[in-house]
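wait is this the right file?? whatever heres the structure
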């Protein structure tokens, strides 16, 4: 497993890096997960240390957690406990989905644009209605998943929505967190 342990405007020593690797190895061994890589970023926010962790599992899923405390080791421990809780909650579902999947999750390329939110930055083209100005262009990766895997991935990543390609029919779908606590699923394949 590859670890990328860094600090934002702070030095992460060898002792902390060794502690992180040892503790995460024990956590993943407990749940029999095979992570491919882990990215941990330590930062300081006023008087608190913050630890952000993103783990990519061999099943194609991503888990992330954050911990905050007045000491850097305590921030990491809180982050690890949250990651542990997520993996414990999803252990059965992760194993079930991995058993059914014969090949790793496939990712397809997609264009990602950041649009200006300020109305003053909108462009008028050919005397038509104003259009938002594109202020950044990037590439995103869209996974091919089942609906159940997409919901689990969204919850593991702590995101409000996930765009994915439905492995049953290849169409683009969206799952999202609703205000009532349920999960919504948009499948536009029947439109047209």
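ok assuming it is, sequence goes like this
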């Amino acid at each position: 497993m590859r670890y990328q342990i860094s600090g934002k405007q702070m030095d992460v020593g060898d002792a902390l890096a060794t502690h992180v690797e040892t503790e995460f190895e024990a956590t993943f061994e407990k749940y029999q997960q095979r992570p491919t890589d882990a990215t941990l970023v330590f930062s300081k926010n006023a008087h608190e240390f913050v630890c952000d962790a993103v783990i990519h599992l061999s099943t194609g899923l991503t888990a992330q957690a954050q911990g905050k405390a007045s000491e850097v080791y305590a921030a990491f421990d809180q982050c690890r406990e949250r990651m542990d809780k997520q993996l414990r909650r999803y252990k059965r579902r992760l194993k079930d989905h991995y058993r059914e999947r014969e090949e790793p999750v496939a990712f397809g390329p997609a264009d990602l644009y950041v649009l200006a939110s300020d109305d003053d930055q909108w462009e008028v083209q050919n005397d038509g209605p104003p259009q938002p100005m594109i202020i950044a262009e990037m590439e995103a990766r869209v996974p091919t998943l089942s609906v159940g895997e997409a919901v689990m991935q969204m919850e593991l990543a702590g995101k409000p929505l996930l765009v994915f390609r439905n492995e049953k029919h290849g169409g683009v779908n969206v799952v999202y967190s609703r205000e009532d606590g349920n999960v919504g699923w948009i499948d536009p394949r029947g439109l047209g």
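Residues 72-100 form the longest helix (29 residues). so i think its the right one actually
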